[in-house]
């Protein structure tokens, strides 16, 4: 009986470790498996994707390549996961500082991220940015 309990505990431990690795790999696979198309681009709750607006250049298609490069609307650069794959950091020469986003949702059909980013007109204030994308 003790052997059965020990074997069960060991198998349970291996199963938990395998599930954690699968979840981590799933995030990478979900993000890189498809191109994403912008659905809504909001700053402080208002649409900011129109001509001349702050997120205009993020409008369109976004791709996260397996080699950590990517296209983010009109921007090109690099991406990486941070904070145990709960954040995506986007680095591009076109932005003054990296864009660190929190992943609210990542499924095969939906990507929702948000961040606070310094205002381009008043760096002492942050813009609350929410971007949602649908799988292409």
Description:
- The structure is a single chain.
- The protein has 136 residues and is of the alpha+beta class.
- The protein has a single domain (2-135), classed as Lipocalin (Beta Barrel).
- The chain is built from 1 helix and 9 strands.
- The protein has one helix spanning 2-32, and strands spanning 35-43, 46-47, 61-64, 69-72, 75-82, 87-91, 99-106, 110-118, 126-135.
- An 8-stranded antiparallel barrel has the order 1-3-4-5-6-7-8-9.
- The longest helix has 31 residues, at 2-32.
- The termini are far apart.
- Residues 17-24 have low confidence and may be disordered.
- Low-pLDDT runs of 5+ residues are 17-24
Can you tell me the CATH class?
A: Mainly Beta
Order of helices and strands: HEEEEEEEEE
- End-to-end separation: 54 Å
Query: How many domain modules?
Result: 1
Largest sheet: spatial strand order: 1-3-4-5-6-7-8-9
The CATH homologous superfamily: Domain of unknown function DUF4822
Question: How much strand content do the residues show?
Answer: 35-45%
CATH topology: Lipocalin
Category from helices, strands and their pairing? alpha+beta
Number of helices: 1
Mean pLDDT: 87
The global form is globular
Query: Mind summarizing the main beta sheet?
Result: 8 strands, antiparallel, barrel
The beta-strand count equals: 9
Cα Rg: 19 Å
Using the 3D structure, state the CATH architecture. Answer: Beta Barrel
Helix coverage percent: 10-25%
């Amino acid at each position: 009986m003790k052997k059965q309990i020990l074997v069960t505990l060991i198998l349970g431990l291996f199963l938990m470790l395998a599930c954690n690795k699968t979840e981590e790999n799933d995030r990478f696979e979900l993000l890189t498996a498809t191109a994403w198309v912008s659905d809504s681009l909001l700053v402080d709750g208002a649409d900011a994707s129109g001509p001349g607006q702050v997120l205009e250049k993020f409008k369109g298609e976004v791709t996260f390549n397996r080699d950590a490069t990517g296209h983010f609307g009109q921007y090109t650069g690099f991406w990486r996961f941070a904070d145990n794959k709960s954040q995506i950091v986007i680095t591009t020469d076109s932005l003054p500082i990296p864009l660190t986003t929190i992943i609210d949702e990542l499924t095969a059909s939906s990507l929702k991220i948000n961040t606070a980013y310094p205002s381009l007109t008043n760096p002492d204030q942050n813009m609350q940015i929410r971007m949602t994308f649908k799988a292409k």
